[in-house]
Amino acid sequence: ARRQAFSCLSPRPCCGLLPPSCGLLPPLSALLSPLSALRQSAIPRLLLLALVPAMALASKQEALVASYKAAVAAHQASELDTALEHYRACVAIKSIPAVHNNMAAILLSQGDKAAAEENWRLAVEGKPDYAEAHFNLAVVLSESGDDAKLAEARRHCELAMEHKEGYVQAHHLMGNIRMSQGAQEEATGWYAKAEALGGSAAAPAPASFRWEGVEVGHVRTLRLPDGTSWSMQTLSLRPLSFLVRDFLSEDECERLIGLARPRLQQSLTMGNASASERTSESVFLPAAEDGLLRELQERLSALTRLPLQQVAGGEDIQLVHYSQGAAFGMHHDSSAFLPRLLTAFYYLNEVEGGGETAFPAADGAMSPDEALALAEPAAAGGGLVVKPARGAALLWYNHGEDGSRDACAVHAGCRVTAGEKWGANHWVRVRGATPGEEPSS
Asked: 70-78: long-range contacts (C-beta < 8 A, 24 or more apart)?
């Protein structure tokens, strides 16, 4: 019956065999004849017609796998341009949601926000239950400040939570979105849910090296292997904080500002500041992008005496910009789902007026809850208020000596009253904390 299904006019091989009734099978003498004779027979042409599509498909699959492996290897090695080139080769063969997701992450880090958004849209279009891509797209959309895009960001954030149970980051992002939409009470609820899902905020951090504060005003000199030295002054004991002057040179400050200026976008918070209280702009700069960024990782490792792997294995340095009138409201840098052992803030310019970093609850000046309620912490008086000084590094520990989160580390970037302010956040995660997802596989 199978043989009868074939047409002699249009033979189609079944399982690689041709039906004898076609009359197209050559005699044995032809099979044993020279290649010229075989070329005159129908078998090579028929087999070629059957095999060419399969061979082409296999070739494409091999090229796809090779490009993808090369892309992921380059991505994990922070060779972003190379990774992007290989990812593009992948999607030229086949649109793969995970590849679009990874491409978008690289494009965003390079400042191409529009292309990043486009690729995350392609990712969720190709895989509607792709929670991480929905979340990433929601992040980008939420930063625009546009009402329509905020509404769309909310929808994608909801989809991220729908397709990934207990998605802590998405719960926190929803808090940011609702805060930007003016629903402060609802936003507070989302932040609380994120904390609850992330676990206890009081969970102790593993032991790491920690400088002794001795007393407020104490100064110690740190000598480096290359012969240079830093003077580190204790500013407060709770939170434990220090000031290191001339941590960066004037040229280094200008270089960081130049890297950040074309890519700035509205800052997001850890959870307590309202939209009106976070009017600064910021951008994350991957260390692979510039030698100075890698140098700062090594420098901070030397300053804190923490392993370079712990310093470099966390978050990228975040450059921030405050125009006149801008501020960043009261907040804490560490949370249950984003545990940051310490923060180093680099002041990159001299500020004409305002722009201080305020810790109203430092050393018991007031309760952390009272501090969090302050709208203008610099005007409240008390606690610790640090004035910007170009090249200085302000270092503080977000966790106490026992490893628990130090509530007194709540702080704010005070309003700039004249001129502008440039700075950089350099966070070090609690040892063993997951620094983020590797490129998708």
From this structure: 71/99, 71/102, 71/439, 72/102, 72/439, 72/441, 75/102, 75/106, 75/439, 76/438, 76/439, 78/286, 78/287, 78/288
Give 44-97 pLDDT, tens digit per residue.
555 555 555 666 667 778 888 888 889 888 888 878 899 999 999 998 988 999
Minimal CA–CA distance to 265: which of 195, 185, 180, 337?
A: 180
Cβ density class 349-384: b for 16+ within 10 Å, e for less: bebeebbbbbbbbbbebbebeebbebeebbebebbb
CB contact set of 401 (below 8 Å; sequence gap of 6+): 210, 240
Contact indicator for 236, 216 with CB cutoff of 8 Å:
yes
Structure tokens belonging to residue 327: 């501020």
Cis peptide leading into residue 239 (ω within 30°): yes
Return d(Cα 208, Cα 5) in angstroms, integer: 76
User: How confident is the model over 216-262, as pLDDT tens digits?
Assistant: 999 999 887 677 899 999 999 999 999 999 999 999 999 999 999 98
Distances in whole angstroms, Cα of residue 352 to Cα of each of 256, 328, 385, 419, 422: 20, 17, 16, 5, 12
Backbone angles phi, psi at 29, to 5 degrees: -60, -35
